[in-house]
Amino acid sequence: MDIKALGSKDWGANVAEIATAEPTRRDFLFIATGAVGAVGVAAVAWPFINQMNPDAQTIAAGAPVEVDLSPIAEGQIVKLFWRGKLIFVRHRTKKEIEEAEKVDVASLPDPQPDSARVKDGHAQWLVVYGNCTHLGCVPLGNQGAYDGWLCPCHGSVFDTSGRIRQGPAPTNLPIPPYAFLNDSKIRIG
Amino acid sequence: MSGHSTYVPKSPVMKWFESRLPLFGLIHSSFVAYPTPRNLNYLWTFGGILSFMLVAQIVTGIVLVMHYTPHATMAFSSVEHIMRDVNYGWLLRYLHANGASMFFIAVYIHMFRGMYYGSYKAPREVLWILGVIIFLLMMATAFMGYVLPWGQMSFWGATVITNLFSALPIVGEPIVTWLWGGYSVDNPTLNRFFSLHYLLPFMIAGVVALHVWALHVVGQNNPTGVDIKNPAKDAVPFTPYATVKDAFGLVCFLVVFAWFVFYVPNYLGHADNYTEANPAVTPAHIVPEWYFLPFYAILRAIPNKLMGVIAMFSSIAVLVFLPWLDTSKVRSAVYRPLFKQFFWVFVAVCVGLGYLGAMPPEGGYVIAARVLTAYYFIHFLVILPLLGLFETPRPVPASIADAVLAKHGGGAAAAVAMGAASAPSKK
């Protein structure tokens, strides 16, 4: 290639010239160097981005926790933390269970039957994450039109199954992973 | 602009230095000899006031960091330590906290002034967009700074605002976890906000340098919106005229600032933030700081989570396109009778949104917020483009000198002066 052309400021003309000719060894080296350089930049950038993800200590704090249900009276809502996230354990009354079960599922914004939100044979125990699915505030228990929860921030209303009924929250309160160890003990996580 | 330096170094040392780095020549041409329109009013002092506030926030912030502990278990008590134990700590913290509010008061006046006098129009588009970038950086800085005392409002403000990103489909949840460094707002979140809160003001300072540079390339706008045609008649040197006027404006502004700091230091804050952060309880009524309220009202006005977030960010993004949305060739509202009215309606709408942002999201407040949100966007996307086509502007003066003399001379004298002044421009 013409060295003078390379030295000139008119790179566009130079590139056009190369495009019409057979690829040269120089073209190959140019692209290969650029590609390796881009991979290198990405490889160095990744640690700087990934350092912000949950660290080993935070993840380790996600070890399962066992909860003794026996002291929780009927009608009571207990708050606890797992992985730094708030969880509600609600001991539902017969009336609250009935209200949750008799709803026409198709009419719900996020359709889900009550049976899908509790464990078989443990319908009196509702275990849900305690942060509103709108913007993360903590809803207040036993309030709102459905006696479930009412979020004080932006007015989302949840029923006694933790399902969204009114307001800006897009989904039901999610269910954390948990299992019954026996009738009065659950393990979350 | 004919602002090239007339600076001549006198001493041999200065000559030696200037020939190697023409720093004093640059300062002289930018802040001494720089031609300033002779008709600038006090609204033009807010650029200088904002520069002062940025420096004030950085200085008070740096000394506060000498006593603050960025840890979830200690941050709240370290702020109380600053308030009670540190020498003049109460003063430094109140200066910094109220300084943020003063910074936003000044920037909103500065922005509305730019809108009223059409300061965003060609050739000042880049200048305006740099200003929007500074505004965004200011909002990010203020938000993260408010989290640092780790009170209830800090914690729940951080939770609500970071959760905005969870509205994004698919990538939303991983992004929020990444922002938090965990599964909820916690110590890692506080640490990174502290780091970024320290960094962003210096990024603002960098963009401010570009903003001032762009300003000095295209020159200042002025109340007539007419460019400087004859520097000898239309302009005065920056020093002493603008420097003294800016200094006086700044002193008046500082009187207001001092009144807040010394008499009502907590008036603009929330009592809830004097309660330590508690992830199990949300305060009954959470609201952001006053300067975010209009945008918060827009967020809450939309019943859909994702659309609410998009509307809120769009309300700021639309400012970037303002230079092209306003189709009128006339810059200043002084000569635009219809725009002038719509401008004040827009100001009222912004204030109204601010009021609604502080009210609970129920009943009539939600309906009002929807109406005002719709108007906010209609102003930019419908009214401004159409006004430029249908409005008949009043005659614009031939030069700044004409406008000044017509205003301050007597009737006949002004007519003569106008004829005399406008004659050369016809040649």
From TrEMBL, chain B:
Its main location: membrane. Belongs to the cytochrome b family. Residues 228-398 form the Cytochrome b/b6 C-terminal region profile domain. The chain crosses the membrane at residues 43-69, 90-111, 126-148, 155-180, 200-219, 247-264, 306-325, 337-358, 364-390. It comes from the Bacteria. It comes from Chelatococcus albus. This is Cytochrome b. PROSITE patterns: CYTB_CTER, CYTB_NTER. The main subunits of complex b-c1 are: cytochrome b, cytochrome c1 and the Rieske protein. CDD domains: cytochrome_b_C, Cytochrome_b_N. The keyword Membrane applies. SUPFAM superfamilies: a domain/subunit of cytochrome bc1 complex (Ubiquinol-cytochrome c reductase), Transmembrane di-heme cytochromes.
